[in-house]
Amino acid sequence: SHAQIRSEKDTTAKLERDRQEKAEKSRREKQQQKLKDTTGIG
């Protein structure tokens, strides 16, 4: 049905957003780790 197709689209969009947020978060954590390594702080 039409409603099912729409909900599948929403789910895909949500998964994509979650994936991007995870990637962004791990990227930030890596940068912070790099800063710690270069400055010797932490």
TrEMBL record:
Region (Disordered): 1-42
Top-level taxonomic group: Bacteria
Protein name, entry field: Transporter
Species for this entry: Pseudomonas amygdali pv. mori str. 301020
